[in-house]
Design brief:
There is one protein chain. With 172 residues, the protein is α/β, with parallel strands linked by helices. The chain is built from six helices and seven strands, in the order H-H-E-H-E-H-E-E-E-E-E-H-H. Strand 4 (94-99) and strand 5 form a beta hairpin. Helix 2 (21-32) runs antiparallel to helix 4 and helix 5 (130-142) packs antiparallel against helix 6. The termini are far apart.
């Protein structure tokens, strides 16, 4: 009975401190000069009505495993206990930081293959450029083995097309 009560307390603490996740991950990313890509990077480029809700952080880092461990340690420190873990991803060179409470992925950290076209913003975060994200999505759509992603990625390209035609002044 005591063990269940302690587990319940730990889970409650997780939800109380959940708002600490994003600033902590971004702090590590800023410090280590990683590059944010995926949904969060795309949302930085777009006006709010073209954003897609995302809960995880997709990032590139030369030493992906080390960066994932660094994020895990920073989050555990903020939460005051063992709330997070690092698991190896399906793809070689990818490591996932996951919540021990929910099992949800907090961050996917991948060793990049080649050069990532990016830009640093005023807040010190490196974001993949829209042109890079667009090329990456087009490549996925040509890949028959990634057909499970095609509908989602076609919709993302549609949002990019709307942005480019109606709003884009110049890519920062």
């Amino acid at each position: 009975m005591v063990k269940k009560k302690n587990q319940l307390r730990k889970k409650n603490e997780y939800y109380l401190r959940k708002s600490l996740i994003a600033p902590t991950v971004l702090s590590v990313l800023r410090k280590t000069k990683g590059i944010l890509h995926g949904g969060r990077a795309l949302n930085i480029h777009m006006p709010p009505h073209l954003d897609r809700h995302t809960t995880d952080f997709d990032m590139y880092a030369k030493k992906a495993k080390e960066r994932a461990r660094e994020i895990e340690k920073a989050l555990d420190k903020k939460f005051g206990g063992d709330y997070f873990r690092v698991e190896e991803g399906t793809h070689k060179g990818t490591f996932k930081v996951k919540s021990n409470v929910t099992g949800n992925v907090i961050a996917d950290v991948t060793t990049p293959k080649g050069r990532i076209i990016h830009k640093t913003t005023l807040d010190g975060i490196n974001y993949a450029k829209l042109s890079y994200i667009k090329r990456k999505l087009q490549g996925i759509l040509r890949d028959k083995t990634k057909e499970f992603r095609h509908a989602k990625d076609r919709e993302t390209l549609q949002r990019i097309k709307i942005y480019e035609r109606l709003y884009k002044q110049s890519e920062w």
